[in-house]
TrEMBL record:
<keyword id="KW-0479">Metal-binding</keyword>
<protein>
    <submittedName>
        <fullName>Protein SRG1</fullName>
    </submittedName>
</protein>
<feature type="domain" description="Isopenicillin N synthase-like Fe(2+) 2OG dioxygenase">
    <location>
        <begin position="74"/>
        <end position="99"/>
    </location>
</feature>
<feature type="domain" description="Isopenicillin N synthase-like Fe(2+) 2OG dioxygenase">
    <location>
        <begin position="100"/>
        <end position="130"/>
    </location>
</feature>
<dbReference type="GO" id="GO:0046872">
    <property type="term" value="F:metal ion binding"/>
</dbReference>
<keyword id="KW-0408">Iron</keyword>
<dbReference type="InterPro" id="IPR027443">
    <property type="entry name" value="IPNS-like_sf"/>
</dbReference>
<dbReference type="InterPro" id="IPR050295">
    <property type="entry name" value="Plant_2OG-oxidoreductases"/>
</dbReference>
<keyword id="KW-0847">Vitamin C</keyword>
<dbReference type="Pfam" id="PF03171">
    <property type="entry name" value="2OG-FeII_Oxy"/>
</dbReference>
<dbReference type="GO" id="GO:0031418">
    <property type="term" value="F:L-ascorbic acid binding"/>
</dbReference>
<dbReference type="InterPro" id="IPR044861">
    <property type="entry name" value="IPNS-like_FE2OG_OXY"/>
</dbReference>
Length: 187
């Protein structure tokens, strides 16, 4: 309790431990504590930017290629998967790949979440996205005559619209951005 008091909500503040929207002492209160993710989110953002810059350095990218992320947005998704009596009939989270700026040098691995018939599962995914008014695609410094662009450039907002409107069993959004070479077109 002493540790919780260090993070207690201040008056008219929604962050921290405590009760939100207490307007009267006579009112019944919810039996719940609310806690902040602000400090955790800040540290994750710092880590994400550091990883992006280290990745760029390892690939020999121009530092300006990562400016797309400097004013990006951060979000979290918390998923709860209860035990499922027939896990073979459902998808916890459909298989997907994440967009990357490495022009295929670092491969985006397909991943998913599965459910279990006996155990519940909780996952917390954190996303650090490029700014919505930018364009995404292979980093210009990684595109050369010897290594042409493997993916199209597309507006970030358009990319996310495609990502969130695609069918569950459809082609992964990243693959929809792939540029086909002449050999692939004839297949």
């Amino acid at each position: 309790m002493e540790e919780k008091k260090n993070f207690w909500q201040q008056e008219e503040d929604l962050e921290g431990f405590g009760q939100a929207f207490v307007v009267s002492e006579e009112r019944k209160l919810n039996w719940v504590d609310i806690e902040t993710l602000e400090a955790y989110s800040f540290e994750l953002k710092t880590l994400a930017i550091k990883i992006l810059h280290l990745m760029a350095k390892a690939l020999g990218m121009d530092a300006t290629d990562m400016e797309l992320f400097e004013e990006g947005s951060q979000s979290m998704r918390m998923n709860y998967y209860p035990p499922c009596p027939q896990p073979e009939l459902v998808i916890g989270l459909n298989p997907h790949t994440d967009p990357i700026v490495t022009n295929g040098i670092y491969r985006s691995i397909e991943h998913r979440a599965t459910v279990n018939s006996e155990k519940e599962r909780v996952s917390i995914a954190t996303f650090y996205n490029p700014k919505l008014d930018g364009d995404m695609g292979p980093a210009p410094s990684l595109v050369t005559p010897e290594r042409p662009a493997l993916f199209k450039r597309i507006g970030v907002a358009d990319y996310f619209e495609g990502l969130f409107t695609r069918e569950l069993h459809g082609k992964p959004n990243l693959e929809a951005m792939r540029i086909q070479n002449e050999d692939e077109k004839s297949i």
